[in-house]
Amino acid sequence: MATPHYHAVVWIDHREARIFHVNPTDVERLVLHPDRPTRHIHHKADAIGSGHAAEDHKFLQAVTRSIADAHAVLITGPANAKTDLVKHIGEHDPQLAKSIVGVETVDHPSDGELVAHARRYFKAEDRMLPQRS
């Protein structure tokens, strides 16, 4: 019988989300892409708007569903998409929001680097949680 995946780590930008459900010996990987990925937008003088891409709610909802069963979630990414995801989860799934244990800026790690980082993070995080009897 496989060990359940208690932890999830998400690496997200506006082009993709890489989701890993991890335990000490196993990992499950999922990659999601928005229907219409945005390009990097630069702010131009005298232009209307902030120069930031609008949130893709369908994409954020798909990411949210993919981590719904995790008990502890680490959200990472290089820019604003990670905070957009945290905001989306807070507004649409407050129960899941309680499972977010960290939000970190992480550039573009390989899958192996991200999984190793998550395992180190959750090992340290688990030591700080109350022990269950």
Overview in brief:
The protein is an alpha/beta fold and 133 residues long. Helices cover 33% and strands 23% of the residues.
Helix content: 25-40%
Class of secondary structure makeup: alpha/beta
The radius of gyration computed from the alpha-carbon positions, rounded to a whole number of angstroms, is 16 Å
CATH arch. level architecture of the domain at 1-32 and 54-106 = 2-Layer Sandwich
Shape: globular
CATH H-level superfamily of the domain at 1-32 and 54-106:
eRF1 domain 2
Low-confidence stretches: 39-44
Q: What is the string of SSEs from the N terminus onward? A: EEEHEHHEH
Strand content: 15-25%
> What is the overall pLDDT average?
85
Helical run tally: 4
Summary tags:
Nucleotidyltransferase, domain 5, 133 residues, 5 strands, 33% helix
Protein architecture, described:
The chain is α/β, with parallel strands linked by helices and 133 residues long. The protein has a domain at 1-32 and 54-106: 2-Layer Sandwich (Nucleotidyltransferase, domain 5). The protein contains four helices and five strands. It has a five-stranded mixed sheet, with helices on both faces. The protein starts with 6 loop residues before the first strand and ends in a 5-residue tail after the last helix. The model is unreliable at 39-44 (pLDDT under 50).
What secondary-structure arrangement, pairings included, does this model have?
Elements lengths: L6 E6 L4 E6 L4 E6 L24 H10 L5 E6 L3 H12 L1 H4 L2 E6 L5 H18 L5
Parallel strand pairs: 1-4, 4-5
Antiparallel strand pairs: 1-2, 2-3
